[in-house]
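User: My collaborator sent over this chain with a note saying "see what the structure looks like." That's all I know about it. Can you take a look?
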Amino acid sequence: MDPAQAKDELARRLRGQLAAARQATGTTQADLARVLGCEPAKVSRVLSGSRGITADEVLKLLDFFGVAGDVRREIEELSRAAARRRPKVAPGAQPEKFSRLLRREQTARAFRSYSTELVPGMLQLPELALRVIRLNPLIRPEDREALRDTRVARLHRLLAAGKELHFILSEAVIRCLAGESDLMGPQLRHMIELSEHDQITIQVMPFSAGIHAASGFGFVLLEQRDPADNFVFLESLAEVTWVEEAHLVKVYAEVLEDVGMRALAPPATRDWLTNVVSEL
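Assistant: Without extra context I'll predict from the sequence alone. Here is the result:
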């Protein structure tokens, strides 16, 4: 197993142990911080997978949780795998925040998102993807094409793995394409074609729907097979936020459900997009 994948899986398993202990004895992250002799913030980062954990720290937690037998051996092996050195890659070729999302997608059951202004990367034509990547000053010129190829391959990889993909787009996403006149028609036709795939759902939230709970911000919800492992991904130009607290993830899921109910249904979205293309 790749060290990065092992780190994420190790964090997931430790979160599961904490959840079981919390249910049985009321254990909190503050209790784990006392066991490790660190600040609670460090425990939070370890459990989210954003910070590594040493083998000694893993053993302390396993002892604290009273984990034994096969489960203990599996977690110890994950700890060793996570500690192995990763092969060096060119800095910036694939930002770590994006790499982590790709890893977490592999275990997801469904990918759901709301977008405010930009066509989601998985729906972008290669030409649009490269144009968007060129606008990011944090991505080195020599890494742009490799990142574009990764984005394009991502959709096919998730479809081949049987993932369910649901994209809700503000009408602004479509209207912003007017500034890319040479690509607007091909991009919209591409999205219409994708919307006919059994695993892909595309909806448009028209301006006429008015303001709603997700107005002004976009996000990605990754649904895992175990709902307790669901999480939300928020991205800006230079930062990324992972929301993994169950009560907050639940709020995002409820917002996404509400937005989906207010947006155009998939057949109506196809008709709406087809009409926009006809007016070009």
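A starting point for your reply to your collaborator: The first helix runs from residue 3 to 25.
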